[in-house]
Amino acid sequence: MAVSKNPISGLNKIFDNRIRLGVMSVLMVNEEVSFNDLKQMLEVTDGNLATHMVTLEENGFIKVHKGFIGRKTNTTYSITKVGQKSFADHLNALENMIKGVR
Amino acid sequence: MAVSKNPISGLNKIFDNRIRLGVMSVLMVNEEVSFNDLKQMLEVTDGNLATHMVTLEENGFIKVHKGFIGRKTNTTYSITKVGQKSFADHLNALENMIKGVR
DNA sequence: TTATTTACTTTGTATTACAAAGTGCTTTTT
DNA sequence: AAAAAGCACTTTGTAATACAAAGTAAATAA
């Protein structure tokens, strides 16, 4: 058999993790999402979610907004331009891989 | 914002790893692939590939065939029925997630 | 006043991923 | 014939990752 092209070379390592994948896919279609909503959607502990959010932020994929509802803290997240581009690239790589399989 | 459905609940944890994802996608479209071809395609060290192959085998997703070319050992891998079904389910979950994003 | 919520941080553990080196057998090269 | 190299691993060790659980501080709700 001939050796064909590496099917996973276009994937972004940051998005291999399922929780970060989930966060990004939620933020692609929702302008702003709160910490709590993400936590409930993805069914994760808050400590775990917090560390993944830090990873995404450190990579410049998301922005954090620390605000208030009344005088109660309320943190929301949104995707950055870089995040949109990087995630779209990742999804394209995934789709190409899937296309190769079907 | 209302809390929508978990976008990653249908994903299979075994296929989160990029190397296992690559192996499965290669084995979906090729009857039989040798250890060496996989190694070259995915650009991994042999120790690393070997452990991922064991994981896939232990989960019943692939079958190992230890054979010879002449008197030289030759190991090939193929996907199982279970592997096909599980990987197809995973790809469907991925596609649904992508669809939700676009 | 006590309990609860929010959005974390800290701590600790378990799992994972990976490279590198070693192995035993064979073939190829010199 | 001897040395080098390929095959398909296993072993060893390390570093990174993931995660739960508990702790925290400021605020609100009961």
UniProtKB/TrEMBL annotation, chains A, B:
InterPro entries: WH-like_DNA-bd_sf, WH_DNA-bd_dom, WH_DNA-bd_sf. Residues 19-98 form the Winged helix DNA-binding domain. Pfam families: HTH_34. This is Transcriptional regulator. It comes from Paraflavisolibacter caeni.
